[in-house]
Structure formats: C-alpha cells, structure tokens
Amino acid sequence: MEPAPVILPTAVIRHKREFPIIWLVPLIAALIAGWLAFHSWSERGEVVTITFKNASGIQAGKTRIKYRDIDIGLVEQVQLDLGSLDGQNGHYPIRIQGRIFPNAAAFLNDATQFWVVRPELGITGISGLTTLVEGVHIEADPGSSQQRTVDFAGLDNPPVVRQNTPGATYILTAASLGSLTYRSPVYFRGLPVGEIQRYQLTEERDAVRIHIFIKAPYHVLVREGSHFWNVSGIRMSLNADGMKAQAESLQSLLQGGITFDSPAAETAQQAPEYSAFHLYNDVEAIGERYYTKQLDYILYFDGSVRGLSEGAPVEFRGLKVGSVTQVRMEYDPSLSTIRIPVTVRIEPERISEIGTATMTPEKIFEHLIHKGLRARLQTGNLLTGQLFIELAMLPDIPLRRSNPKQPEIPTAPSSLDEITQSASALLDKLQRIPWERIGGGLEQITRKLDQRIGPLTDELTHTATAARLALDQSRTTLATTEQWLAPQAPMYQTIQDTLQEVSEAARALRALTSYLERNPNAVLFGKGRPTVEEKP
C-alpha cells in the first residue's frame, strides 16, 4: 500500500506597495509653503485707492501709511488718473494704491481721512520734522462711519483737528474774509481756544461762511447771544486822548484771528454745535443793532466827491442813520453832462416816533425832506481826507429833485464848498480891480511930488544957511559984548539962553532938510519907518 500523497500549501505571492518615507519631506515643505503663502496673503491686508492733487515725495514701495507714527500700510503704486474728468482742464489727479494691514481694517469706512505729511514752517511753529529724515508719509484719521469703502479722496491740507476730538464746530458768516486764513486762531480773553477749519462762499455768493472749531472744555463758553469779531492786524484810533494802536497777539497780527465774548451762564444757554453767528468787523460794530428796515435814496452833488467811498456813514447831528452803498458816474444825454449819483441806505428804525406810530418810515423821511432835510458832504478825517454825508435841516435850500420817480434827498453845498466859493468870489473881485491904472496914477503923483519937493528943499537949505550965518554973527557980537558985559549980569544970561535956542533950531532945521532930501514922499504920506539910518 502506497502512502497517500502529501498536499503542500500553495504560496500566494502578494506585491506590497510601500510609501517612501523620503516623500514626506517635500509634502511637508509644500504644506508649510502653502500655509506661509496663505498667512502672507491674509496678512497683506486690503488694497485701497487714495486720490491726491499733489503727490510730491510719495514713492511706491517706500512711502508708508501711518496713524500717529504707527505703520498701518504701504504705498504700492503711484500713477496718473488719466480717466478723470478734471483731466479735461489739464489737471490730472494722482492715484495712490496702497495696502492697509489687517489690524487697521477698521479704517476702511467713508469717514476716514488721508493727507500727506510734509515739513512745514508756519507762524505757529515747525511741523513734520521727522519727514526730513524718513521722507514724507500719508497720515490717516479713522472715521466712525459704518459705510465700508476702499476709495478715498485725499485732503489737500491736514485737518485742523482730528475726528472725534472733544469740542464743537460753529459757523460764522462775514461780508468778507479779510486777512483771516486757514488755521487762524480763535481767542477767548486772549487765550487761544480754537482755529478756523475751512471757509467758502455762500450759495448766493454774497458772503463768506467760516467754520471754526472750539476745543473742549472751552466750547461750553459759546452761548446763545455770544458775539464774534475780527481781531486781525492792528486797530488804530484817534480821539481826544491821542492816537492808540492795539493788537490781539503777534500771531493774529500776521495770520489774522477771531475772538468772542460769553454771556453769563445764568442768562444764556450753551449754543448747540453748528450754530450760526455773525462775524463783526470789530468790537465797536457789535454795539450797532441790526436793522431790518432799509430805505435807499439817491443824492446828486455838484462838486467833487473825492474822499467819499462805499461804506461811509450817513449821520444826522452826529448819530449814524445809514451808510453809502454806491458811488458811480452816469451820462445824461439830454444835458450832455456827466453827473455823479451817490446811493445811500437809510435805516429808519434808528429814528423812533414819539407817541403812537401813525406814519411809515417812507412818509417820515418825505415829511422831513419837505421841511428842509438836506444832505451835504463833510470832512470826517483831516489826515486822510475821508468824507461822510451829513443830514441837516436847511429849509433855506430850495427843494430840487433830478428824478421825481426815484427817492431822492436834495443836497446842499458843504462848509468847505461855501468857503471855496467865497474865496473864488473874492479872487474874482480882486482880479477886476484896475491895478495898472492905479499904478499909473501913483506914478504921476510921485513925479509931481518930486517937482514940488525940489524947490521946497532948496528953500529950506537957504533958510538953514541963513540961520548958520546969523548964529555966527551972534557969536561974534557976544564976544564983543563980553568985553563990556559982565558974566554975572542978567543981560549976559538972557543973551546966552537966546543963542542956545537959536542953535537948537538950526540943528533941527538941518535934520529936516536932510530927511526930505532922502524921502520926498514924506510930505504926502508922513514920516514912516526910516529906510536909512538917520543921524542928527
């Protein structure tokens, strides 16, 4: 018996695929690179576009975007915005593309402001000195709006105050800006408490609207009823005490300035933010009330109006009742003459009617005109020659009007005009005097006097000569008489006195003769002040 065959197991060959460990290295590297790339991409932040009119000093890849000296972004690209509508006028804005870091994502709202910080030298001091070393940078001021955006319009100038700064903004309205400018200071009792933020014309283009910011805690001093006035430059006044000059500060002298007063807290409440106030030219103008009723009249002056300008006051007995609004020239073809109409604006509310008001302001002034109200020019300042218009009751001046259809106040000559007219009339009279005929007559009289004075002088000379001969003969006789007349005798003394008198008369006659020879006119006009020294 044969043994049973042995069945051996069949080997199953399986091919095992093993992952090489070496491949883990690039896989891990790729994962790390991907994570780094994602982290780098996520850390780059978001691209924003800022448009400026001037991008001087900004460089791509170098200029930083900062907030209070902390980097929050970097400029990546600088290019012209050729598609802007402003390019039609030849002014292409500059588009700055920058990237804001993720930690500053809260800045991306439509209230955020951007501006370029450069070194500046101003009256208030030097700013931006760090840019001399690090270069210019873009400063950001985050807003609190919820509206997200990545497109911004950069500011041309840094804002006066950053957003969310404690304080309040108010609006002033003025007839003109004057010497005020951006960042001009606002004072309270000489202490700087704010600055001008911006200014622009009103919609009607007839005034200037000025935005000012008052810092906390001084903004509570702006109350209902506060007054603002301009303190720019030097204020000069001339009065009985002499000339006075006053300036608020050196900064207001150079940059302009505004100051305001504050009513008592018991009588006035704090003014809400963005309240509107009128900006007066000076503190004296605050005392003048604002009158709503105004009447326009026209005046025609015959003489020159040099020195009369717009804004000159119209006064009645020293009190202002209006002002000059226009001085112009117009041609009258009917008379072929040029005349100068002056338009004045009267504020009739300055004149109150006693008793119950029964007449309108127009009727009051028309009644005064018929009673003799006239206008005339007067000198307001002798140094500058400035004129003003005075209203006075002059019933002797006739009522004459050039245009009955237009309200007109008749005019009267001024005191200076009256003096000028009187002087002109006097000169005319003097010119009409026949000076040549008078001179010819005086010449004839002088010649006749010369003819008559000659014989008279000869006669007086002959008389003087005879007197001298008589004196000499008397002296000879006296010498002879002395021999038989004693000096102590009365006859001797009498003869001595007589001779003395005759001697004095001869000297006087000789002096008269000499004077008449030098001054023959003395016979007609008498003896005046001698022109030649007289010797006895």
Write the layout of secondary structure elements.
Layout: H1 24-43, E1 46-52, E2 64-67, E3 70-80, E4 94-100, E5 113-117, E6 120-122, E7 125-127, H2 131-134, E8 137-141, E9 151-153, E10 167-174, E11 185-188, E12 191-201, E13 208-215, E14 228-230, E15 235-239, E16 242-246, H3 250-255, E17 258-260, E18 276-280, E19 295-300, E20 313-316, E21 319-327, E22 330-332, E23 337-339, E24 341-346, H4 361-370, E25 373-379, E26 387-393, H5 415-432, H6 435-482, H7 490-518, H8 522-525
Parallel strand pairs: 1-9, 2-8, 10-18, 11-17, 14-18, 20-26
Antiparallel strand pairs: 1-4, 2-3, 3-4, 5-8, 6-7, 10-13, 11-12, 12-13, 14-17, 15-16, 19-24, 20-21, 21-24, 22-23, 25-26
Describe this structure in words.
This protein has 536 residues and is an alpha+beta fold. It is built from 8 helices and 26 strands. The strands form 6 sheets. It has a 7-stranded mixed β-sheet with strand order 5-8-2-3-4-1-9, with no helix packed on it. Helix 6 (435-482) runs antiparallel to helix 7. The termini are far apart. Mean pLDDT is 77; it is low at 530-536.
List its salient traits.
single chain; 536 residues; alpha+beta; 4 domains; seven-stranded mixed β-sheet; seven-stranded mixed β-barrel
Overall SS class: alpha+beta
Helical coverage, percent range: 25-40%
* Residue runs with pLDDT of under 50 for 5 or more positions: 530-536
Give me the side-by-side strand order of the main sheet: 5-8-2-3-4-1-9
> What sort of overall outline do the alpha carbons produce when their principal axes are compared?
elongated
How many strands?
26
Radius of gyration: 53 Å
Mean pLDDT: 77
The major beta sheet can be summarized as: 7 strands, mixed
Count, helices: 8
Task: Please give the domain count.
Answer: 4
Query: Percent of residues in beta strands?
Result: 25-35%
Question: In whole angstroms, how far apart are the ends?
Answer: 216 Å
